[in-house]
Amino acid sequence: MQTNKILSTGLFLLFAAAAFAQQMSVVSPNQKLKVELSQSESTAFSAWFLKVDYRADEDFTPVIPKIDLGLLRDDQDFSKALSLTKVEPIQLIKEEYTALHGKRLQRNNTANEITFCFENENKSKLNVVVRAWNDGISFRYEFPEKEGDFVIQDELTTYTILNKTNRWLEEFDLSNERLYANSDSASVQKNWSYPALFETPEKDSWYLIHEAGLDRSYCATKLNNNSVAEQYKVTLPHPGEGEGEALPQITLPWKSPWRVIVVGSLADVVESTLVDDVSKPSVLENTYWIKPGVASWNYWSHNHGTKDFKTVCEFADLAAEMNWPYTLLDWEWDQMENGGNLEDAIDYIHSLGLKPLMWYNSSMFKWITSTPVDRMKTHENRVEEFTKLNKLGVYGVKIDFFLSEKQYMIDYYLDILEDAAQFNIMVYFHGCLVPRGWQRTYPHLMTYEGVRGAEWYNNGPELTTAAPEHNNVLPYTRNVVGSMDYTPVTFTNSQYPHITSYAHELALSVVFESGIQHFADRPEGFRNLPDAARTFLKEVPVVWDETKLLDGYPGRFTVIARKKAGNWYVGGINSDGRRERQQTLDFGFLPDGNKYRLILIADGKYDSEFSTRYMVVDQNSEIDVKMLRRGGFAASLKPIN
């Protein structure tokens, strides 16, 4: 027995040495990122982990020193006792596609992919596929064996964060509508929502942790650092979160969602489309009917506004005046009165050349009784309702109250998207998860909530004081990973006031990206604006050819430029409650040799006053812009022919 044990140990060591002689790391095509597979010597079974390095200048430096790997299946353990049996040759991955909306229409990204093949003690196989992209890394698990139905009992993916890393984290809740908190320590130990933003201690690199490519074969996950403060573990839904099984049911062969880490400068993070790049291509053959745009919206100012036919008509009139294509009929449209019903309202909306959108309750929770209910819950319900909407000339649906990230709810989201596509109906979700790359796969998914947006001015006083800083965190976190239905641009007050300046609010039309952008104020809020600001909101696009972060820091200030069809739009917002900011606006992002007519709409002397400047600029121009303590500015640049 002793001889056999020594022989077995010797063979294992020889095999291990052979394995380590193989390629154990992969570098991105631009040579800025490296991912390395290593073994931990701190456990009895030498568990495997990934290490991520980034090269901002000449040398690679650690970004994430350790990402523990492993899965627990109901029949077997795929974590500690894994043997590396093979490393597949590195492959070049190229993603080139055209998006219909988002921060950039023409998408291209490249990665080098390496696959590590493992066996556990029972000779069952697990692959870990790792890609080093030019702007981040992604990895996922695969069970390559051909048959079997199992349950994933736990995912052991855990990110170890360097001490003194600066982090922006949002405490998890099922609607993903909390505020981000900033800290340079992990003293707070909780469940955290995606995405999570980190700045390395050296202050020269940033990374954003998320997941993408989620489909019916898994649940959505979150992060949790309850066990060890500096270790953020991928965590499955809690059994009490809604109906259905908490643990994902899988069928072999199986692939997990991608674990995604966007890495680089702060601009690299903000401008990245990596979450979409790793997700499945569009499943739609025809997309001519998908039309992004701005919508008027009565809920923010009139919580029960859609019950009132005359209010609905007022907001339709506003959309027509502002050249916006859409108006939304929010909850309670089935109770409409005061001069007309739903059909009357839709006829009036069409008479103005507008396209109506309509709200629905997901009907997944009996205690949420907002009407209409039970029209989206089953395939039969949806087919019946979408048939009616086609006849009425309704172009999109807003579906609310999902409030679960279990596998059954992922099925429900995707069922809705697949059925809506058959009727050429656009979709957006509220009370929901944050984007997981579905907008690439289902481009008629126009936007998601999953954010504490302007409707929270209805819910309590907290957003009033939090909004300036909160607005300056979202461009670096939530809005990086997909469209965000914050419902921005409010100059008057809802139930609780805003303390952001008018110019700050105007700038949100550029700073925040959403395929359907709901400008939330009441009609007089827009009609009372000066001509320059009102014209800006008539013209500002929601679809962008290019996005550039010009300057900024999370929670402090943001300056973003976006391009559409040769025109550029710039939005800047400040959140320093103590002092004004003198922002230098450098136009080096403009094409060489072209001159542009600039209209700059900035803060005046006080919050509700604008200061407007007109000038000609080119790539070599610079101007100084004053932002009030909670102020901002918006600018349009059109080429001079």
Alpha-beta classification: alpha+beta
Globally, the shape reads globular
How many helices? The count is 12
Specify the helix fraction band.
10-25%
Measured distance between first and last alpha carbons: 88 Å
Strand content: 25-35%
Overall mean confidence score, pLDDT: 94
Query: How many whole angstroms does the radius of gyration measure?
Result: 26 Å
Strand tally is: 38
Described by strand count, sense and barrel closure, the largest sheet is: 11 strands, antiparallel
Q: Any low-confidence stretches, pLDDT <50, length ≥5?
A: 1-21
Give the oligomeric state of the chains in this entry, treating copies of one chain as homo and distinct chains as hetero. Answer: single chain
Structure characteristics:
641 residues, alpha+beta, 11-stranded antiparallel beta sheet, 8-stranded antiparallel beta sheet, 12 helices, 38 strands, 19% helix, disordered N terminus
Overview of this structure, please?
This protein is α+β, with helices and mostly antiparallel strands. 19% of the residues lie in helices and 34% in strands. Strands 7, 8, 9, 10, 11, 14, 15, 17, 18, 22 and 23 form an eleven-stranded antiparallel β-sheet that branches. An eight-stranded antiparallel β-sheet has the order 1-2-3-4-13-20-19-16, with no helix packed on it. A seven-stranded parallel β-sheet has the order 29-28-27-26-25-24-30. A hairpin with a 6-residue loop joins strand 3 and strand 4. Helix 6 packs parallel to helix 7 (407-422). It is globular.
